[in-house]
What does this fold into?
Amino acid sequence: MQSISYATETDTLDKAQPASADFSTQFEYVLENRPDPFMPFITEKAATSTADMNEIVDKSEPLTGMQLFEPGQLTLVALLKKNAEDVAMVEDFTGKGYVLLEGTKIGRRGVVKDIAPNAVIIEETAVTRAGKEIITQVVMTLKKEGEE
It folds into this structure.
């Protein structure tokens, strides 16, 4: 018959820790190109630094329709009249066509201001942090057949 022996709790504790355990060793944190975990994330300098007042601030509204395209991504392919209204047709890089009317929002900051006999004039209005408006005009010209 086999005999089974059970170890007591005191036996396992004695074996786990040697009698001469040395608790005097200190843990040393080595940075190794890591940030110091005891330094605050935001420093006083970063919290009080002044922002560039000439930086352009975009609104965080979702873009829809023609706002998804900047004027430079489109090619003007046709200009026509519908009753007394001028209409422009543009094409994206995939060949898909779109219709532009006066007042159509295009890109993040642009609005179609005028549809001339051979061009579309888009006015882009950017606002800086200081509230100053910067207005630029982008002109899309109609190219003749075979012209690049």
